[in-house]
Design a protein that fits this description.
This protein has 170 residues and is α/β, with parallel strands linked by helices. It is 55% helix and 13% strand. The chain is built from 9 helices and 5 strands.
Length: 170
């Protein structure tokens, strides 16, 4: 199916890397959170507030089945918890964008629209809890990944190029 599925913690740059990688490779980029927001006509914080995280995770599972059955030759950026879907590795080649928690927070803080980036990620509202979640998930991401890209202190373009360099292995 030739899909590339980007996983990693929220704020790791999955969406940005997907867009740059799409330009470099000629594939289309799909963002799972954007697809869910379009499906429900609500923003992620609204979905969490109205339906809770468990309903959001159920919708992710439904989206994963759709992606597996219908999407080919795409770069798919996922939400931070999407790695938990049962069929992740059936959707495409899974690449973990590995970034330290401090690098993620520094990256978001250095963005001109940092407040907006934090606001759209409900699970980053409490940085202590977010750090605990990060510690819990980082090994899980690695277990699910076909490839791991170290992203600390790397530009989006450098990360995308590292992924393109894997093309013979994907």
């Amino acid at each position: 199916m030739n899909n590339i599925v980007l996983i990693g913690f929220m704020g790791a740059g999955k969406g940005s890397v997907a867009r740059v990688l799409a330009q470099m490779s000629g594939k289309f980029a799909l963002d799972c959170d954007d697809l869910i927001q379009s499906h429900l006509n609500k923003k992620i914080p609204q979905i969490f507030a109205e339906f809770g995280e468990s309903k959001f995770r159920q919708i992710e599972k439904e989206l994963a089945v759709f992606l597996q059955n219908n999407v080919k030759n795409a770069i798919i950026s996922t939400g931070g918890g999407f790695y938990m879907v049962d069929n992740l590795n059936s959707i495409g080649t899974v690449i973990y964008l590995k970034r330290s928690f401090d690098d993620i927070i520094n990256q978001i803080n250095s963005s001109p629209n940092a407040q907006k980036k934090f606001a759209k990620r409900p699970l980053l509202s409490d940085l202590n809890k977010a750090k605990e979640l990060f510690e819990k998930r980082k090994d899980e991401y690695a277990k699910k990944a076909d490839f791991i890209i170290d992203c600390d202190n790397q530009s989006i373009e450098q990360i995308a190029q590292k992924i393109l360099n894997l093309k013979d292995q994907i």
